[in-house]
Amino acid sequence: MSAPKQVATGDRAILPEGAKTIPIFVMGKRYEVPETLTIMKAMEYAGFKFLRGAGCRGGICGACPTVYRKEGDYKLYFGLACQTVVEPNMYLAQIPFYPANRAQYDIEKTEPLADAVHALYPELFRCVACNNCTKACPMHVEVLDYISAIKQGDLARAAKLSFDCIQCGMCASRCMGELPQYHIAQLVRRLFGKYIQPRAEHLQKRVAEIESGKYDAMLGELQKMGHAELEKLYKEREREPDMVPLGTWMPKDVSHL
Ligand code: SF4
Ligand code: SF4
Ligand code: FES
């Protein structure tokens, strides 16, 4: 027997005329929701209020990992609730937090060496290369590859491979070796950024210029302007065109550079 139909009530339940609803199951309970919504909006439509498990709503913060299955399909799917659109008869549950081990370290005293990472996270070597982590990643990060790179001591490669990780914890939830992949990768990216990646010379030059007071007079002029004058200046400013190839555009007025 199918679960009783629950129709959502409240402000979010006002549907545009002609909108189609579909059934979804949230933690085993059936709700009728508009077919075009993301999982997050559909859950809110159904009456859920997010106290945890929602943050940026833009696919960046990693707060809303969701596991779901589709009707007639044994396979588990993984997605971000704020990005994944509902499908008829999807069965879902959110995993807003995963209690993975996170090592304590002082980055100032941690050497940018594989040995240091291995000592903080010895469970790295429990990885059996099953690839469950990669299959579960809603950001399509090659999780097994970055774990393997860390085991092999190639921190630069691991930092690059894990760059799109949003710390959602889904990989750890599926790991038979009980690795906290995302915390390990975050340590590696911190070490890479602090010690391994070459310093950006143009940035150092600009910081030195700021500290020397080069822009003080210009900022002083702006501070004296009124709201209307500032708004005009902002609207009429010379803008870099969209999608211009890197390093090919310069403003006509270079007096402020
Ligand atoms: S899920 Fe765990 S054990 Fe499997 S490949 Fe990923 S890190 Fe290794
Ligand atoms: S690597 Fe793990 S924590 Fe990072 S986005 Fe993928 S599943 Fe989430
Ligand atoms: S709410 Fe931030 S990734 Fe979904």
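^ FE2/S2 (inorganic) cluster complex. The longest helix spans residues 181-196. The pocket of iron/sulfur cluster (ligand 1) is lined by residues 127-133, 143-144, 147, 174-177, 179, 181 (CB under 6 Å).
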